[in-house]
């Protein structure tokens, strides 16, 4: 899995994820959606060697983005926007990406986590919990995006385990699935620390 940091970069191979810092400050959900779709169209045009007008992005009923044009690309797309950072993932199989701000000044909401995740976080030193929570949550959201369900799927119904500083593993007994992804820390346009997670599933 390849991480890139500029919309001007094309990926020599897939899967790949782009983390693009921006000074844009969308005021609401439609504006955030348009920002990430606009950047995704520009990026895909470069990746495919096409004019931007030849690229069209739609979405499934549950919200997962789809590449409508060029037709027949066979590629899967995932998008995320958070606090001055746009994330775009592209792969040949179902893919999910998410970014979360590391909220150093607040206590993580442990009640939304799987019991095993809560136990692990509760045993960390308090100063380490905000970063660990942001990494866990971005991994969980990336996974449900790859599934295509979003958080119509209850977040406590599956577990994520961080595997060092760069990897995570998902255990989803309800779906009989295990999966693995990658995590990364980066900065947004305001130079805040952000946790990013990127996962590609073996099958839909």
UniProtKB/TrEMBL annotation:
Task: Write out the entry's keywords from A to Z.
Answer: Transferase
Name the source organism: Bosea vestrisii
Q: What is this protein called?
A: 4'-phosphopantetheinyl transferase family protein
Entry's family note: Belongs to the P-Pant transferase superfamily. Gsp/Sfp/HetI/AcpT family.
Q: Where is the 4'-phosphopantetheinyl transferase domain?
A: 94-174
**MF annotations from Gene Ontology:** transferase activity
A Pfam match: ACPS
What InterPro entries does the record tag this protein with? 4-PPantetheinyl_Trfase_dom, 4-PPantetheinyl_Trfase_dom_sf, P-Pant_transferase_sf
UniProt keyword annotation of Transmembrane helix present: no
| PANTHER family noted in UniProt | L-AMINOADIPATE-SEMIALDEHYDE DEHYDROGENASE-PHOSPHOPANTETHEINYL TRANSFERASE, PHOSPHOPANTETHEINE TRANSFERASE
- Spell out the Gene3D superfamilies in the cross-references: 4'-phosphopantetheinyl transferase domain
